[in-house]
Every structure is written in structure tokens, then in C-alpha cells.
């Protein structure tokens, strides 16, 4: 059930039997020549909605404005500073807790959200808060490796592009037909959580916006399979978070 499409009475009834909520977190930033600006938000939202349906969970509106300062040299990117995002999430968590949502599951689609989300979870150490990115589960990771191997890369990944192709639209590859510059595993590790350089330098380094990801390998069929695998994994993990909470109703 989507929170934004529920009435307050429906939410009150839901809270009598469950204190769980899934909060999708994405971004609004360039995703290469064939990736939609909203890719991260779309992926997190669609996986969250599918998982919620399977697990009978409530889904909060997607947090699509998040930190992406390194992509600000590409038009269309909208970025919040980390302190602003962290403060925003902290206030939302406080509000959810006050209503009785005591199991908060952040389903993430953007690396740079992870550090601020973890700091918020630390602040509310007594609450049940779990943070997972949709690509983390083993079944999903296996699919990504099978489909794309090293060409999954870091940004504008074929797997995230595939999901948006399955749910929204396919943009012709254009520039992205040719593979991007390959990046090393070491580079990926050193830049995990989107620890990239300043905007101008980042665009000079990755002129078309792809960071080692061969987006053109994406297909809507892959996207459908990735979505299904991620939905099932997140539903299971969400129910596991809930299982530790005191019974209601
Ligand atoms: Zn992304």
C-alpha cells in the first residue's frame, strides 16, 4: 500500500497490525546518454512497490532529492548537500516513529545516500532501521554478473538502465553504443558510496556520464528479471526486520 494513496484512517488501521514502512531513496542526476535522470529514484521506487505488494508493507513517497554534487556539471542533476539530506531524513524518521512506524526499511538506489542514511540510523539507535540497496541481494547480484560481468561498472549501470526500460522507456543508445572506458576494481572500491571528485573534474574524467558502465547492454527483459529478483529479496528482508518487532493486533 502506498502511503500517499492511503487515507489517514487507512494508515491508522494499518498501524494496528504493523509498524513497518519501506522508504525508497534515489537521486535526480545524469545517468549517461541513455539513462533517465530519475533512474535511481525509479529503481528504488519500483522495487519498493513490488516488495511491498508481496510483503503487505506500506511504502512512503520516494526521496528523490539527495546528494549528487559530483554530477552538477551535467544539466538536469539536482543535488542536496549531505547535511541537508541527513537533516531531512532525520526529521522524517522522527515523524514516522511518532506515528508508531517502528520498523523503517530504507530501500536505496544511490550510493551517495548510504553514509548519511547510516548516520541517521545511528542517531536513532533504539529504533529498527535497516538500509539496503536494491542490487545487494545475492540473487540480484548474480543476475547482474551473469548479464553484464565487468561492464556493470559504477554509474549508468546496464542493470539500472534495464529496470527503467522495463518500467518506463527505452532511449536509443546514441553515444553509448561504444563501450565506456573500462575502470578497475580498485577504482570501484576507492569510489564506493559515490566518492567522486568535484563536478568539473568528474565531467572531464567521464565526459558522457557513464562511469565504467556499458549501459547499451541493458534490455527491458533483463530489467523485468532484475526487478522480480530484487522485489522478492527485499520482501524477504523486510519481513525479517519485522519479525524482530513486538507483535501487534
Ligand atoms: Zn544510478
Strand order of the largest sheet: 2-1-3-4
Main sheet properties: 4 strands, parallel
Ends apart, CA distance between termini: 18 Å
* Helix/strand class: alpha/beta
Counted by DSSP, the helix tally is 9
Number of strands: 4
**Basic shape:** globular
Q: What is the percent of helical residues?
A: 40-55%
Oligomeric state as shown: single chain
Could you explain the architecture of this structure?
This protein has 249 residues and is of the alpha/beta class. Helices cover 45% and strands 8% of the residues. The chain contains nine helices and four strands, in the order αβαβαβαβααααα. Strands 2-1-3-4 form a four-stranded parallel β-sheet, sandwiched between helices. Helix 2 packs across helix 9 (220-243) and helix 3 packs across helix 4. It is globular and about 55 Å long. Zinc ion is lined by residues 31, 39-40, 110, 160.
Write the layout of secondary structure elements.
Layout: H1 8-17, E1 20-25, H2 39-55, E2 58-59, H3 82-99, E3 103-108, H4 114-123, E4 128-133, H5 138-148, H6 158-167, H7 185-190, H8 199-205, H9 220-243
Parallel strand pairs: 1-2, 1-3, 3-4
This protein binds zinc ion.
Explain briefly what this protein structure is.
This protein is an alpha/beta fold. The protein has helices at 8-17, 39-55, 82-99, 114-123, 138-148, 158-167, 185-190, 199-205, 220-243; strands spanning 20-25, 58-59, 103-108, 128-133.
Amino acid at each position: 500500500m502506498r502511503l500517499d494513496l492511503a487515507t489517514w484512517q487507512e494508515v491508522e488501521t494499518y498501524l494496528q497490525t504493523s509498524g513497518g514502512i519501506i522508504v525508497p531513496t534515489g537521486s535526480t542526476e545524469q545517468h549517461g546518454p541513455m539513462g533517465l535522470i530519475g533512474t535511481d529514484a525509479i529503481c528504488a521506487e519500483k522495487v519498493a512497490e513490488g516488495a511491498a505488494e508481496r510483503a503487505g508493507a506500506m511504502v512512503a513517497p520516494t526521496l528523490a532529492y539527495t546528494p549528487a554534487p559530483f554530477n552538477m556539471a551535467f544539466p538536469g542533476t539536482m543535488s542536496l548537500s549531505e547535511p541537508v539530506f541527513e537533516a531531512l531524513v532525520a526529521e522524517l524518521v522522527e515523524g514516522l516513529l511518532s506515528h508508531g512506524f517502528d520498523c523503517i526499511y530504507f530501500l536505496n538506489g544511490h550510493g551517495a545516500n548510504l553514509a548519511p542514511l547510516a548516520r541517521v540510523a545511528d542517531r536513532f539507535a533504539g529504533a529498527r532501521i535497516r538500509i539496503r540497496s536494491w542490487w545487494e541481494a545475492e540473487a540480484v547480484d548474480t543476475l547482474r554478473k551473469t548479464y553484464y560481468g565487468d561492464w556493470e561498472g559504477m554509474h549508468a549501470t546496464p542493470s539500472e538502465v534495464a529496470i527503467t526500460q522495463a518500467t518506463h522507456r527505452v532511449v536509443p543508445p546514441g553515444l553509448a553504443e561504444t563501450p565506456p572506458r573500462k575502470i578497475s576494481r580498485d577504482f570501484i572500491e576507492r569510489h564506493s558510496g559515490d566518492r567522486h571528485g568535484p563536478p568539473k573534474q568528474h565531467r572531464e574524467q567521464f565526459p558522457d556520464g557513464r562511469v565504467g558502465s556499458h549501459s547499451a547492454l541493458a534490455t527491458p527483459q533483463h530489467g523485468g528479471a532484475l526487478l522480480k529478483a530484487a522485489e522478492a529479496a527485499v520482501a524477504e528482508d523486510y519481513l525479517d526486520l519485522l519479525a524482530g518487532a513486538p507483535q501487534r493486533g
